[in-house]
Design goal:
The structure holds two protein chains of two kinds. The longest helix of chain A is centred in the first third of the chain and has 17 residues. The relative contact order of chain A is 0.15. In chain A, the strands form two sheets. In chain A, strands 2-1-3-4 form a four-stranded parallel beta sheet, sandwiched between helices. In chain A, helix 1 packs across helix 14 and helix 7 packs parallel to helix 10. Chain A is built from 14 helices and eight strands. In chain A, helix 1 links the parallel strand 1 and strand 2. Chain A is an alpha/beta fold. Chain B has three domains: 106 residues, Beta-grasp domain (Ubiquitin-like (UB roll), Roll); 112 residues, Fumarate Reductase Iron-sulfur Protein, Chain B, domain 2; 62 residues, no CATH class. Chain B is 40% helix and 12% strand. Chain B is built from 14 helices and seven strands. In chain B, the strands form two sheets. A five-stranded mixed beta sheet of chain B has the order 2-1-5-3-4. Bound molecules: iron/sulfur cluster (SF4) (2 copies) and FE2/S2 (inorganic) cluster. The site of one iron/sulfur cluster has 14 residues of chain B, from helix 5 and helix 7.
Chain lengths: 293, 328
């Protein structure tokens, strides 16, 4: 296998409120010998809200982002579930609707770009599993996480809609029984915790609009992991991470019970197993402080 | 077809049992059965009733996936019993399947639930054509094929409730209309003959009950046996709310969606802090200060003067100018 190389779409969160996610992405990529070229031209994907306001604009902006992966001749890798959803959904819609593609391309032509549909779009979690391989990852583990019970939290937009997940990735996930993150935990030597909320919603996208609903969903997720006797949670999505890491007060209030958990990005968990340092993984940037590493 | 392609498997069904007249608490009963690759979950339920316990109760009628009566859940997965092959489920979940009603807390008897909340929500969106019909029309009221395509198959809904009871917001917020009611509302909002678009939209845009409270989890899209994709219709309703010139609720939710466009225009990227301020307003934002302070201490807040920008921002700005369809 030659060196894996991807166009990295960082999304906004990794550059703002979860800097540790970007740091640990690069740290892990370096350990594994994966080359990531940042799509510095990319805009925000609209985070599933811009399209509520202006669906066409959202399509045009996401198509533009994909153009920059295409012009580099690379697969786009995302590190946020919602970026993955919005980008892959844009690709799906344009690739299946010539008229829509033509309308979008008419706009893109004004700035000298064209969407062709030549780049794949994959979340880093699936790039690791599909392209790099879990076997190889476990061979490279130097500090197995064998003393930890780890609760996977998948995040909606990586597993639903499953049609989109299945067409974008070799690992075909079933949203009612997803396995990818569990498999990564096992590859890192950890014990995966099974609990009802692992494939449920954290509430992030309605945090401002429906704070009570959002707090209850966060609370239920944290509670599920706690009652499943997890030492920490792990997620591939920075938005889930933000919600679970920072909103424990609201969640506890809504639940009528103290709920709080240490939560790692999947890159940080993998990084620990691969022997990256606490500094490289940005473990000091958590609000629910990381005490075990 | 050759019969020899039929295979048999031993499956353990853990079945939710509850009789609200006599039982204090529900319980699960196990039935171990040999199931062929031709059997659907409704066959399994029939055999439990016929061979094991005549009191086992469930709804079914058409056996053809059109009445919506037989919807249940298997291992948490919304399932139309008369359509879902049992072996297919064992391929996902293994040889132990948990059979439950769509909503355990609404069970009246075993799989039969009290679905009244579903119908109340359904009625609340005025699920019928409201039109000032000329009793003596001179021409037919024609709908073009293109206009009927705009319904996006929302009219195919069989009201099985699978999406409704898969929706986490329905469980947590009793005012929320839910995905099935939104599908139904969209079916009439998208109908060119309907005269109540504005009134219906006004109700659909209210905080608590309306589309803004959807958390975008896609559970409804996953649950629907008719592939109606409720959240796609919810997005359409969001768009309609912005396009109806008379609806300017100017609430947190509306500003939150618009805020993305503002921020992208300025930075290419989302300014997270500014989005919260813009959405909540200068007073509303104060309630976020305690969490923001904790985040700031951990280096999780980018100050305005350090806001990163996309390369080639001018391109993004040009596209926003030329491609924007909505105005706020
Ligand atoms: S996407 Fe919205 S309507 Fe659909 S299940 Fe989730 S919260 Fe409910
Ligand atoms: S939208 Fe689909 S899942 Fe929801 S009630 Fe209608 S047919 Fe059932
Ligand atoms: S019995 Fe009518 S849909 Fe299944």
């Amino acid at each position: 296998m030659g060196k894996l190389k991807y166009a990295l779409f960082t999304g906004c969160t990794a550059k703002e409120s979860t800097p540790e996610q970007l740091m640990s992405t690069y740290a892990v990529a370096e350990k594994l010998g994966i080359e990531l070229i940042e799509l510095s031209e990319a805009s925000c994907c609209g985070a599933s809200h811009l399209q509520d306001y202006d669906d066409f604009l959202s399509l045009v902006l996401n198509a533009r982002n994909i153009c920059y992966a295409e012009s580099r001749g690379m697969t786009m890798v995302t590190i946020c579930n919602t970026c993955q959803l919005n980008t892959a959904m844009t690709k799906h819609r344009l690739d299946n609707d010539e008229k829509l593609k033509a309308r979008v391309n008419e706009k893109l032509a004004e700035v000298g770009l064209e969407y062709k549909g030549t780049s794949q779009i994959t979340h880093f979690l699936y790039a690791l599993i599909d392209d790099f391989g879990l076997d190889k990852i476990s061979e490279m583990v130097v500090k197995p996480l064998s003393e930890f019970n780890i609760a996977p939290f998948y995040g909606c937009h990586n597993i639903r809609p499953s049609e989109l997940q299945n067409e974008s990735h070799k690992t075909k996930e079933n949203p009612y029984n997803p396995t990818s993150l569990d498999d990564l935990i096992i590859a890192c030597g950890g014990e995966n915790v099974d609990y009802d909320e692992k494939n449920k919603c954290c509430g992030f996208h309605a945090e401002l609009q429906a704070p009570k609903t959002a707090a209850l969903l966060t609370g239920k997720a944290l509670q599920g992991a706690m009652d499943g006797n997890a030492d920490f949670m792990v997620t591939p999505c920075p938005l889930c991470h933000l919600k679970l890491d920072t909103q424990y007060d609201h969640a506890s209030h809504a639940m009528g019970r103290d709920v709080k958990m240490e939560v790692l990005h999947m890159q940080q968990m993998l990084g620990l197993a691969l022997g990256c340092s606490v500094e490289e993984l940005g473990l000091k940037h958590h609000v629910s402080e990381i005490t075990f590493a | 077809m050759e019969n020899n392609s039929v295979t048999t498997k031993s499956v353990t069904f853990k079945v939710f049992r509850f009789n609200s007249d006599t039982d204090y608490l529900p319980y699960y009963k196990e039935y171990k059965m040999d199931v062929t690759s031709e059997e659907v979950i409704l066959d399994v339920m029939d055999r439990i009733k016929w061979d094991h316990d005549g009191s086992f109760s469930y709804r079914r009628s058409c056996r053809h996936g059109i009445c919506g009566a037989c919807a249940v859940q298997v291992n948490g997965k919304a399932t139309l019993a008369c359509k879902m092959n049992a072996h297919e489920l064992t391929n996902i979940f293994g040889d132990e399947l948990v059979l439950e009603p769509q909503s355990t807390k609404r069970s009246i008897k075993d799989m039969i639930i009290d679905k009244s909340d579903f119908w109340e929500k359904h009625n609340a969106v005025h699920p019928y054509l409201i039109s000032h019909i000329d009793e003596h029309p001179e021409m037919e009221c024609a709908v073009s094929p293109h206009e009927s395509e705009n319904l996006m198959e929302a009219d195919l809904c069989i009201q099985c409730g699978a999406c409704h009871y898969a929706c986490p917001v329905v469980e947590l917020n009793e005012d929320f209309f839910g995905p099935a009611a939104f599908v139904k509302a969209y079916r009439f909002e998208a109908d060119v003959r309907d005269d109540a678009h504005h009134e219906r939209l006004e109700e659909l845009g209210q905080a608590g009950q309306g589309v803004w409270d959807c958390v975008k989890c896609f559970e409804c899209a996953e649950a629907c046996p008719k592939e109606i994709n409720p959240i796609e219709k919810i997005t359409k309703l969001h768009n309609m709310l912005f396009q109806d010139g008379n609806i300017r609720n100017n609430g947190v939710a509306e500003r939150h969606a618009v805020g993305f466009a503002h921020s992208i225009k300025k930075h290419g990227l989302l300014d997270e802090g500014e989005l919260v301020r813009y959405s909540e307003g200068n007073i509303g934002v104060l309630k976020h200060v305690p969490v923001a302070l904790k985040m700031f201490k951990k280096g999780k807040i980018v100050l305005p003067w350090n806001m990163p920008k996309s390369d080639k921002l001018d391109e993004i700005q040009a596209l926003i100018k030329s491609s924007s369809v909505s105005k706020y």
